[in-house]
């Protein structure tokens, strides 16, 4: 048995949890875990420090055992005038129920300064008052944390450095995708579905773009998700697709259909058996019969829909009973065509917004999986600008059987 505290460990951390009947998993790749200074619960640390490469350490924590338990004292009213709507230059920020905002947006509270970007949540809005929640976003949930030790690397001599509470870091961000008290978050009021470029999408996409919008590692993660959730010898629709479907090559499907906006891109997609060109923002009626597909996938494109609830209703119509709809999202998009709210949200709020599409449309057995922290692949055009691979968030649900 090796004492891994004398090494830097490469670890994949996973947190599994449930909120209001929705199952979540959040994975974070830690390329340099320093057990000499990084923070873990003592019982978890004791198991981890005496583990070998390939081992998995797992522990369940009830709410309040590690993450500070929800405390009503951390919710309080502020006057509407204390919410600085001009916090960001040239923009007006309106408080909305269930949304997260940086604490620095609040004026007149001791020890809260303008450069404080830690998120808090708005949980009530009255005529002249706003109810805010300063609790940890994960404070109401039980969770199972696991750590898989992938590799050990010798430490270099070091003096000082930062320490991280990895469980707290992953959990804090993950908690922002869940509803507050199972009440719908206000993502959709106002001009949420406006876009900078309101011209016809068919014009914007009239010429082909044979580019990958996410890096190679992120594409592998999407393919691995599809390999787990999709079944062989089934009918698949690649919805809002392009020249690359990210489907796993090892699975043989019965039929793969594509629906997208550019015929040249679709014709170059080697996995498609057939395809249709359609501008979904002009015509939300999908050109397929009821109960046509076992599975439908939508890869890093959902942020362009201005009529998502009409589309999700159509998805349910053309799915077979028990069929699955999988949406994957990341942090890259075409800004002129992405809806306004998408660009205003924090990363995990975007997951929460897609969850609202699924919940309010009537999908069952809804799940999410987030994968972050992996190193950016060498040779990627952003390799020298960004350390991490593009994050992948998958949200999926099923049609009632």
TrEMBL record:
SUPFAM superfamilies: S-adenosyl-L-methionine-dependent methyltransferases. This is Methyltransferase type 11. InterPro entries: Methyltransf_11, PPIase_dom_sf, SAM-dependent_MTases_sf. Residues 268-327 form the Methyltransferase type domain. Keywords: Methyltransferase, Transferase. One of its GO terms (biological process) is methylation. It comes from Thermodesulfobium narugense DSM 14796. GO terms for molecular function: peptidyl-prolyl cis-trans isomerase activity; S-adenosylmethionine-dependent methyltransferase activity. Pfam families: Methyltransf_11 (PF08241).
């Amino acid at each position: 048995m090796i004492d891994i505290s004398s090494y830097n460990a490469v670890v994949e951390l996973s947190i599994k949890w449930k909120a209001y009947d929705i199952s979540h998993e959040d994975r974070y790749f830690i390329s340099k875990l320093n057990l000499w200074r990084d923070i873990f619960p003592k019982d978890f640390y004791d198991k981890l420090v005496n583990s070998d490469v390939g081992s998995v350490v797992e522990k369940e924590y009830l709410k309040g055992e590690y993450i500070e338990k929800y405390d009503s004292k951390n919710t309080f009213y502020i006057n509407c005038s204390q919410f600085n709507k001009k916090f960001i230059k040239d923009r007006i920020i309106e408080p909305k129920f269930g949304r997260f905002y940086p604490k620095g947006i609040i004026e007149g509270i001791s020890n809260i300064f303008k450069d404080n970007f830690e998120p808090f949540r708005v949980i009530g809005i009255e005529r002249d008052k706003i109810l805010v929640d300063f609790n940890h976003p994960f404070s109401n949930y039980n969770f199972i944390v696991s750590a898989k030790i992938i590799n050990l690397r010798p430490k270099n001599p070091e003096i000082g450095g930062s320490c991280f509470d990895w469980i707290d870091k992953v959990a804090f961000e993950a908690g922002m995708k869940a509803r507050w008290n199972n009440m719908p978050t206000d993502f959709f009021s106002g001009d949420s579905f406006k876009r900078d470029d309101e011209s016809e999408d068919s014009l914007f996409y009239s010429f082909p773009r044979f580019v990958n919008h996410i890096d190679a590692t992120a594409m592998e993660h999407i393919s691995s998700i599809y390999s787990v959730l999709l079944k062989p010898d089934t009918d698949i629709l690649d919805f809002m697709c392009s020249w690359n479907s990210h489907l796993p090559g090892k699975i043989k499907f019965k039929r793969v259909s594509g629906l997208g906006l550019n015929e040249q891109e679709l014709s170059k997609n080697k996995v498609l058996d057939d395809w249709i060109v359609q501008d979904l923002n002009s015509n939300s009626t999908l050109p397929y019969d009821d109960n046509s597909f076992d599975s439908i996938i939508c890869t890093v494109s959902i942020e362009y829909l201005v009529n998502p609830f009409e589309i999700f209703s159509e998805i349910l119509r053309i799915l077979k009973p028990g069929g699955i709809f999988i949406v994957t999202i990341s942090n890259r998009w075409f800004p002129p065509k992405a809806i306004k709210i998408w660009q205003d949200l924090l990363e995990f709020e975007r997951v929460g917004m897609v969850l609202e599409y699924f919940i309010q449309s009537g999908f069952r057995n809804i799940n999410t999986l987030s994968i972050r922290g992996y190193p950016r692949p060498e040779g990627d055009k952003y390799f020298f600008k960004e350390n991490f691979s593009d994050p992948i968030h998958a949200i999926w649900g099923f049609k009632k059987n």
